UniProtKB/TrEMBL annotation:
This is ABC transporter ATP-binding protein. Residues 3-231 form the ABC transporter domain. Pfam families: ABC_tran, TOBE. GO terms for biological process: molybdate ion transport. InterPro entries: AAA+_ATPase, ABC_transporter-like_ATP-bd, ABC_transporter-like_CS, Mo/tungstate-bd_C_term_dom, Molybdenum_import_ModC, Mop_domain, P-loop_NTPase, Transp-assoc_OB_typ1. Gene3D superfamilies: 2.40.50.100, P-loop containing nucleotide triphosphate hydrolases. The keyword DNA-binding does not apply. The lineage of its organism: Bacteria, Bacillati, Actinomycetota, Actinomycetes, Pseudonocardiales. Residues 286-354 form the Mop domain.
């Protein structure tokens, strides 16, 4: 899909242009009020726009004199609170989607039951939404969003209303259905959601896209202050193992799997720069011998109250890692670009998350 959108809402102005390759997921990240929900509302045809050109799956939704109403756009929208129809059963809620695209009652019911079983909610088919937990309702809402076979799926903070126990299961479910699913735009404030689900991210600030690119590149090496603040994480890509992550070059980084990570599947090890300890190259270090590597200081930059050090060299996965040190520690270790160092990362601080792709 490709979109160019410009509009004003009071003093707020949105002006964005982006594309999402077919079948992939774009995450929109940005601070409160940056325009994320406005982008989704405009794509869905729910907000008046000044200029818009939106093409999805080769079909023009808006632009050049065309302006399809929301129900003709073939867009599935999933918001934070699922807004199921309270007076309809679960299966009728889901069947509503294919019905509205012209399927007859029998076909619509069949499609609904298939999707309910796909999302693990078949047993609730006859219940009313009020008789389900928040997580169960969100499963049904996902089934409903997908049951219309949308050309474009819009997800607006799909985990925001869920408790910490049900969010990982729903994230895992979305990962599964999005793998072969429709082209998707996901709004989130959580970089870990973007890592788990999105191929690309775009960072919005005050109605404009200030940064975009492949998820791991943008979150691992942010170029804007905002992205650095929300992300700036150390990311190492590989495959989840029982006790951590195997990197592309075969080393194992010890860590803890999150509850939605699956051994043998693509994963990203995530740890904060403050979790990386730095020792002199030939001196003693007291970290776990497992996650210890030698590297070379590439650069030092003030980062709030600490100094953020970036390294190069060492095994491929370690090149580009960041570590936060106090100014006193930098002085004690006499660190400067080119200094050889040892890095140590406690396994307990390394979280292994499932990764898109
Ligand atoms: N109904 C409205 N009328 C006028 N202005 C609005 C309206 N809704 C939102 N805005 C303004 O549009 C801007 C973008 O809001 P939007 O909800 O798109 O941001 P967001 O990035 O989704 O924020 P959040 O993360 O808080 O959901 C904000 O400045 C907001 O005040």
């Amino acid at each position: 899909m490709s979109a160019r959108l410009a509009l004003s809402r009071g003093a707020f102005a949105l002006d964005v242009e982006f594309t999402v390759p077919a079948g992939t997921v774009l995450a929109l990240l940005g601070p409160n009020g940056s325009g994320k929900s406005t982008v989704l509302g405009s794509l869905a045809g729910l907000l008046p726009v000044r200029t818009a050109e939106v093409t999805v799956a080769g079909r023009e939704l808006v632009g050049h004199g065309v302006d399809l109403p929301p129900h003709e756009r073939r867009i599935g929208l999933l918001s934070q609170d699922s807004l199921l129809f309270p007076h309809l059963s679960v299966v009728d809620n889901v069947a509503f989607a294919p019905r509205s695209t012209g399927k007859n009652r029998v076909q619509a019911r069949e499609i609904a039951l298939e999707w309910l079983s796909e999302v693990g909610a078949a047993e609730f088919a006859k219940r009313r939404p009020g008789q389900l937990s928040g997580g169960q309702q969100q499963r049904v809402a996902i089934a409903r969003a997908l049951a219309s076979s949308p050309d474009l799926l819009l997800l607006d903070e799909p985990f925001a209303a869920l408790d910490v126990d049900s969010a990982p299961a729903i994230r895992g479910l979305l990962r599964r259905v999005l793998r072969d699913g429709p082209t998707t735009v996901l709004v989130t404030h959580d970089p870990l959601d973007a890592l788990a689900l999105a191929d690309h991210v775009a960072v919005l600030s005050e109605g404009r896209i200030v940064e975009r690119g492949p998820t791991r590149e943008v979150l691992g090496a942010p170029r804007t202050a905002f992205t650095a603040r929300i992300a700036g994480l150390n990311l190492v890509a590989g495959v989840a193992t029982a006790d951590g992550l195997r990197t592309g070059s075969g080393e194992v980084l010890a860590g803890l799997l999150t509850s939605d990570a699956v051994v043998g599947e693509a994963a990203v090890a995530v740890f904060e720069p403050s979790a990386v300890s730095v020792y002199p190259h030939d001196g003693e270090h007291h970290g776990s011998p497992r996650n210890t590597v030698s590297a070379t200081v590439a650069g030092l930059e003030p980062h709030g109250p600490v100094i953020r050090l970036r390294v190069t060299g060492g095994p491929p996965w370690a090149s580009g890692l960041s570590a936060d040190l106090t100014p006193a520690a930098v002085a004690d270790l006499a660190l400067e670009p080119g200094s050889p160092v040892m890095l140590s990362i406690k396994a307990a601080t390394v979280a292994v998350h499932p990764a898109a792709g």
